[in-house]
Fold:
Amino acid sequence: MLSELTLSRERGLDEGLDFEALLVNLTSRMVNSPYDQLDREIGEAFRAVGEALALAQSTIYLRQAGNDAFALRYVLRDPELLPLLTNESEAAEAFPWSTKKAAANKLVDLPDIETATPETSVDSAMSRKYGIRSALVIPLSTGGRPPLGFWSVYSTSENRDWPQHLRNRLQILANAFANNLERAETERRLRESEARLKLAANTTGAGLWTVDLDTGTIWATAKLAELFGVRPDEVIDTRRFFGIVHSEDREKMRRVYASMVAGHEETIEYRIVPAAGSLRWVMSRGNRYESAPGRSSILMGVTLDITERRATEEALRGVSGRLLQAQEDERRRIARELHDGIGQRVAMVAIGIQQLSADNKLASARRNLISQLGQETMNLSSEVQALSHGLHSPQLDYLGLEAAIEALCQELRTGNRVEIDFTHVHVPRPLPPDVALALFRITQEGLQNALKHSGVKRFSVTLEGAPTHIELTIRDSGAGFDVKKATHGCGLGLISMRERALALNGSVKVRSQAGHGTEIFVRVPVSSTGRRAPALAS
Structure:
């Protein structure tokens, strides 16, 4: 029997609204507690309610992180009672009906275990063993989801009724427990995720950042702040950031930033000047993310220091450029030898044979044989001349890129009986020799590949100039091919085209699909600043 004093205290709490005030105070403290103090606040609230209701025993079992098992977390009990069950598997075996009902998010209300139904016989027997006379089990759940745990309150001295108004108040506190437990778990996972992300970023040399789109304020990891020459405690905004970006890359960076704000994922390589006299290359990748309702959207991304990679690429580009130049020099030498040396000598032999065949003293059969040999020699001379032009186009040197490509197209039309439409507009003059040579070689390689593999007889070549760059497009509507497979295969055609464009800081894009033709798009800068990458400072 509860003492008259205890009953009076309970009635006083209920009737005098002291219990409601206690609940308000406890829930308010939990809501306003920092993540790392929630466990303590929940424990104190749990004990305060137990003492206010004069409970001999009360428990909270909580789901364990990373699995679906429940373990005893908070305990209030009379030390004279039997030790409590420590995990859900033991509780489920001892109290199968109560555990199953609570797991289904249903309240368990047993004011008198002796009057329980037959289906609760196991629970009743175990309750008697533990001295439990009345029990109330409240699932800790948010939004009807599977419970995070169970809050049980017991009476061990006598049967105890749990009136509706008391159950309602305890349910309010149970909801507060559940919401704050979920918040604590979410915060824990977020902290772990941030720790893993920072570890991964630091391991790979990456810096993480966010931009508040309302204020323009930028948050960055310490490593990124160091890369940009900013103190860790210094507040940086987009205005300061664009001031650090190299002046020649600033407009490009603004366009990419605007695209991110519009919701597009972007990747950009650009230069920064973190301090006077220093220059670094970085790569940034980011996108827009919507925050929680009522909060501003943010840009979020990662930035890598790629200075060493760019320096290596620049060195390799220089080597590649020198190799291509050496190749062109050798082509020019061989072409000159063929044209001025071997070609001229073969032409002289052909002329001598023609003169010999004109001698009327020779027999007719012998004269015909000599004439046939003369014709074959002339054909050989023409082939040597064509080979010389294939190795190096004299039109390119003396008449310019348009004339050289037109001559190439005419040669291919005649020799292969195909149609090649060549158009050119706004080609800048004078065109830098290295740009003209690269575009001519790419056209030569592209058309030869198309003739060999497309299976069609019509092709188009377009050359279009702009103030800062020139574009070349080669198209056919033929068989097409797998670009990825061809790029990683043994063929050198695509590799050669890309190497020539990269040597000038240009690009080559190949679009092709089986049965739908091929398009080769080349874009190369024509200004000296566009074609030459600036030196990298360490």
